[in-house]
Amino acid sequence: MASKLVLIRHGQSVWNAENRFTGWVDVPLAERGWQEAERAGRYLAETRFDVAFSSHLQRAISTLQMVLRFNTASQTPIFLPADGTVPREKYPPTASELPVHLHHTELAERHYGDLQGLNKDEVLAEHGEAQFMTWRRGFDTPPPNGESLKDTCERVVPFFQSTIEPLLRDNQSVLIAAHGNSLRALTKHLEGISDEEIVKVEIPTGTPIIYQLTANGSNWDIEDKEIINL
Asked: Domain 3-227, what fold?
């Protein structure tokens, strides 16, 4: 029996709209981002989820909350911040609640270091196309004081293997709201995409990506993949 995994990059953020490197800066959704999240929520309204996850950044959390706002097929969401992130009492969800795990830094966007907040066109003009593309799309070359996509993979994939894979193997339906680069890292892992080819992969904002997965030893067979362009 195939397990369902739904990935969604947050809706357009304020800095996406301004063409800025965002990384770990906690900017909110833009108006278009809220609309994208709502469209995704309406599309997924009748999809049952057993568990959901997001990063610690508000653009991912807001997108996840908007998607669940319209969901009629799942249990009542109960929001559970990751251990050590915000003060909270331990609360075990009941059988009538949907556990929604928030504030997981493992799922955060790639940290763009010294580029964060800078306009991409201005960085391109100052440093040239070759350096710009190496920083923006290269697999293993980080910007100054930042992360490469390889670094991002090294935190996303172990988290997925230790925390999310057991749920999928238990045939639970999982929803993840995260970021362009953390979802590229996860896509690379699931689909076996090479270091060279992953640089060409784009994850659009507010677009559900629906996988049907079957466990094959320690790996996964992709029975179906849908990219829902709304």
From this structure: Rossmann fold (3.40.50)
Three-state DSSP state, 77:
strand
The question of whether 10 is a catalytic residue gets the answer yes
Whether 109 is a known active-site residue: answer yes
At 41 the pLDDT is 98
Alpha-carbon distances, residue 33 vs 39, 62, 171 (angstroms): 10, 10, 31
C-beta of residue 113 within 8 angstroms of C-beta of residue 147: yes
Q: Which listed residue (10, 56, 111, 179) is catalytic?
A: 10
| Beta carbons within 8 Å of 186's beta carbon, 6+ residues apart | 7, 156, 157, 160, 176, 178
Question: What's the whole-number mean pLDDT along residues 197-207?
Answer: 95
> Residues 3-28: pLDDT tens digits?
999 999 999 999 999 999 999 999 99
**Domain ranges for the chain:** 3-227
**Reported confidence tier of residue 134, pLDDT bands at 50, 70, 90:** very high
